[in-house]
């Protein structure tokens, strides 16, 4: 789950992380009012979208008077901002963050994430703030500081101090920087973040240490612990199909292919997509129906898959364990009654109540194409997709 920068700022303030003065606005006139309230002579007008690279895409601009603030807000609000992370369609800008200008002396990169290879959280930092961390890692690997964190202990004061020293920060601000790192870690851990990125973390002429930008994403599987985060979801920034799937309780990721997949189990879903690719096809989605799906959930899954006009074939691949094959079969039959099935349907079932599931499909009278193996099912789906 992603949130906007202005929302991330509010969360960080709850963890005593200092934030430059700023406020979100939804109209050009409101943006001007915010700038006037903040005071000063320079303001940053920042488009609020769930994507990085906003500056290069024209979504972050400096204004040197109130008229410019209003004009920039007018230009941004309502536009579709295109960045490297949005794709060619861009992301709709419905709000802008007006941030008071600050006197920047130096910039740094700071990021907390999960290193899955080492199975631990890691703090990444660099003196090359403001640059894309991937470019820094490629061009200046020696400038990347890595500090692995024992999750049972957390980021220690000694570790924070060590990172600040390695970044060669001015001694006068090191204590403040250490406190910021410790506050960021606390937010990362307590909010179940998958990523907390500050780029840049700045030191001002006045000797303050601020996150000038903040990106936070959260582990979807931990949202049940954080109802305060779920209310921050911005539907305008989400893929409509993925949003419907989320509301139905279905793990779903939209892809660019034309063979829709309904599978139980994330590993099997990945294997199914790989097999489709192996035979020259392109999966249209990742969809894990899970181990406890109901008939209603299967129906919802079919509705979601068929809502995409690009879909030419549906491939159902079920290994019956906790999820019984007859339950999926009943769901498929019911779904076909509810939705208008206009594309070929290939089904492969193995496992618990397999024979009963196959019997239900056979007696349904539906034009379902069955397969015994995953390879056979994928090959049939790919061939059918090419024929459409």
TrEMBL record:
Cofactor(s) needed by this chain: Mg(2+)
UniProt binding sites for substrate: 264, 321-323
PROSITE patterns xrefs: ATP_GRASP, SUCCINYL_COA_LIG_3
Classification via SUPFAM superfamilies: Glutathione synthetase ATP-binding domain-like, Succinyl-CoA synthetase domains
Keyword Ligase: yes
MF (Gene Ontology): ATP binding; magnesium ion binding; succinate-CoA ligase (ADP-forming) activity; succinate-CoA ligase (GDP-forming) activity
UniProt binding sites for Mg(2+): 199, 213
Free-text remark on how the cofactor is bound: Binds 1 Mg(2+) ion per subunit.
Keyword 4Fe-4S (UniProt): no
Chemical reaction(s) catalysed: succinate + ATP + CoA = succinyl-CoA + ADP + phosphate; GTP + succinate + CoA = succinyl-CoA + GDP + phosphate
UniProt KW keywords: ATP-binding, Ligase, Magnesium, Metal-binding, Nucleotide-binding, Tricarboxylic acid cycle
InterPro entries: ATP-grasp, ATP-grasp_succ-CoA_synth-type, ATP_grasp_subdomain_1, Succ-CoA_synthase_bsu_CS, SUCC_ACL_C, Succ_CoA_ligase-like_bsu, Succinyl-CoA_synth-like
EC number annotated for this UniProt entry: 6.2.1.5
Residues reported in the UniProt entry to bind ATP: 46, 53-55, 102, 107
GO cellular component entries: cytosol; succinate-CoA ligase complex
NCBIfam families: PRK00696.1, sucCoAbeta
Subunit structure: Heterotetramer of two alpha and two beta subunits.
Reported function: Succinyl-CoA synthetase functions in the citric acid cycle (TCA), coupling the hydrolysis of succinyl-CoA to the synthesis of either ATP or GTP and thus represents the only step of substrate-level phosphorylation in the TCA. The beta subunit provides nucleotide specificity of the enzyme and binds the substrate succinate, while the binding sites for coenzyme A and phosphate are found in the alpha subunit.
Similarity remark: Belongs to the succinate/malate CoA ligase beta subunit family.
Protein name per UniProt: Succinate--CoA ligase [ADP-forming] subunit beta
Originating organism: Turicimonas muris
Taxonomic classification: Bacteria, Pseudomonadati, Pseudomonadota, Betaproteobacteria, Burkholderiales
């Amino acid at each position: 789950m992603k949130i906007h920068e202005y929302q991330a700022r509010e969360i960080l303030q709850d963890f005593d992380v200092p934030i430059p003065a700023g406020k979100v606005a939804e109209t050009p006139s409101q943006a001007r009012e915010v700038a006037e309230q903040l005071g000063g002579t320079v303001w940053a007008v920042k488009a609020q979208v769930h994507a990085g690279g906003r500056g290069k895409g024209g979504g972050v601009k400096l204004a040197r008077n109130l008229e410019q603030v209003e004009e920039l807000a007018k230009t941004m609000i309502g536009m579709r901002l295109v960045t490297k992370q949005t794709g060619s369609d861009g992301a709709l800008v419905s709000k802008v963050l007006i941030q008071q200008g600050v006197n920047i002396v130096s910039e740094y990169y700071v990021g907390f994430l999960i290193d899955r290879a080492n199975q631990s959280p890691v703090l990444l930092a660099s003196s090359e703030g403001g640059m894309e961390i991937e470019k820094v890692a490629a061009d200046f690997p020696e400038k990347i500081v890595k500090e692995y964190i024992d999750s049972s202990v957390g980021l220690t004061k000694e570790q924070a101090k060590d990172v600040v020293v390695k970044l060669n920060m001015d001694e006068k601000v090191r204590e403040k920087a250490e406190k910021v790192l410790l506050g960021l870690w606390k937010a990362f851990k307590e909010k179940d973040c998958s990523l907390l990125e500050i780029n840049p973390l700045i030191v001002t002429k006045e000797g303050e240490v601020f996150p000038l930008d903040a990106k936070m994403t959260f582990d979807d599987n931990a949202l049940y612990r954080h109802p305060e985060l779920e209310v921050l979801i911005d539907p305008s920034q989400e893929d409509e199909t993925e949003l419907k799937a989320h509301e139905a309780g279905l793990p779903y990721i939209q892809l660019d292919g034309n063979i829709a997949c309904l599978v139980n189990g994330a590993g099997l879903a990945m294997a199914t997509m790989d097999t489709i690719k192996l035979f020259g096809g392109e999966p249209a989605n990742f969809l894990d129906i899970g181990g406890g799906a109901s008939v209603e959930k299967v129906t919802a899954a079919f509705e979601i898959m068929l809502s995409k006009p690009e879909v030419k074939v549906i491939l159902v691949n079920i290994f019956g364990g906790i999820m019984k094959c007859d339950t999926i079969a009943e769901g498929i039959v019911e779904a076909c009654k509810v939705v208008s099935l206009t594309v070929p349907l290939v089904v492969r079932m193995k496992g618990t109540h397999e024979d009963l599931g196959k019997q239900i499909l056979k007696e349904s009278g539906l034009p379902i194409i069955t397969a015994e193996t995953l390879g056979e099912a994928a090959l049939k789906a790919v061939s059918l997709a090419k024929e459409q």
